[in-house]
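Extended Data, panel c. Modelled sequence:
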Amino acid sequence: MVTVEPASRPEPRWVDIAISNLLRGGVILSITIVIIGLGVTFAHHRDYFQSRPALGELTRPGEHYPSSVQDALRGVLALRGQSIVMLGLLILIATPVGRVTFSIVVFLIEHDRMYAIVTTVVLLLLLLSFVLGATE
């Protein structure tokens, strides 16, 4: 009879499926929101289709772009296309963070304290990088 050590047993299959669904769902959701944002932008500015200089104004230096989560959410409520695109990009950035958070939960369920601690440190470093990056 072969015994399997608790530390060497493979992850349950549901974990792989859940992580795959989380990542796939986050990417699909973000792409959908970005496409909707582009649609709203072009619906509000039909001249972008006909005039190359008008399209250049979309990314003109000095324009106000949502630069924080609050700006993006306010812009989404006002149906500003650029803010909707920004929301999609924020969801894309949040997807791997959600994966790391989910991994911590799984490690705690599996009573794997070492991996839970290491993954928590990774999550804290990710969050710290967001906070420090926002200050510049």
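The chain has six helices and no strands. This feature is highlighted in the accompanying rendering.
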